[in-house]
Amino acid sequence: MLLAALVTACGCTQNGPLVRELFAMDTYMRFSVYGLTDGEAADEAADAVVRLSGLLDAVDSRSEVYALDHGVGLPVPVSPETFDVIEGALGLSNRLGSAFELTVRPVLTAWGFTEGEHRIPSDAELAALIENVDDGRVGLDAERNTVTLPEGMQIDLGAVAKGYAADEAARILREGGAKAALLDLGSSTILAFGSKPDGTKWKIAVKDPENADGVAGIIETDGGAVSTSGGYERYFTGPDGQVYWHIIDPRTGRPAKTGILSVTVLTDDAMTGDALSTALFVMGPQAAEEYYRENGGIDYIMLMEDGSIVMTAGAEGVFTPYGSRAGAKVSVVGSGADG
Ligand code: AMP
Ligand code: MG
After folding, report:
1. pTM of this prediction?
2. Looking at the domain covering 59-148, what would its CATH class be?
3. DSSP for residue 327
């Protein structure tokens, strides 16, 4: 199973990186690793991500999250990894407030985003479902490694799983002796660490949310996580001609529409970046700016529906608009209390 998921085992060039390509979490991923003497750590990192994918996929009836989502209100024992992901994600959820809720899953299902046919739920259906969206009601027992969801509640780790997996892969690679790596978990989650042997910066493309093959900008960075959330990643067009996407505002149960097409967040660790990109997308430009001013510690780039770009002062130094966004109007959000 694990081996079957490895698409390419090598692809190394002289002095170039060791490359691993794999399919996990519904995505093609590519790890380019520098400074390893053999492929052991790269294999281990790839296997860990495939394993996490199997544990956390809420659609797969063999996964631990599936068992949890069908636990009918009882404590469900999970592996230490799954417990760690959920504990970390709930911590982020607590910090991010009502824009970010792992327990939004029944709402995603109602829209057909989890496994069914896409449809537009009625107001009454959504109102009933959001009653049960509340991450504060998820029970964790660290001694027994169990998680308890009240009956009727389900969680979805789609907003953080790739970020957690990227951090885990980086940890394994560093411990295995890697000096540097670019971990691309399907372009929405990218983590770079260490210095490239040629001394150049890591270059990371930000997708054009209005053109699947296009690039809207380039980030040049010394390292860190780059996480992007966008409606364009999963959506459908309703019979009313409106576009409905997979990032939901838990307060309304409807796709979050705030004028943002995509948010790219720069952070040190990928899990925080992954949660934040989803949360800032839901918050919208104003609340995101308030979050940034109060908390700092991140930078972000928002590609807006009106063609403009909103970004933090720190992002301005590393992001160069490109293609359809070259020459776009840019608003820079000043730094907050912590600079
Ligand atoms: P991302 O691509 O990281 O922004 O994650 C999007 C995924 O997170 C969706 O496909 C859902 O599985 C899940 N999701 C959607 N809305 C929310 C939300 N408000 N809070 C947490 N997870 C969400
Ligand atoms: Mg996310």
Report:
1. 0.94
2. mainly alpha
3. T
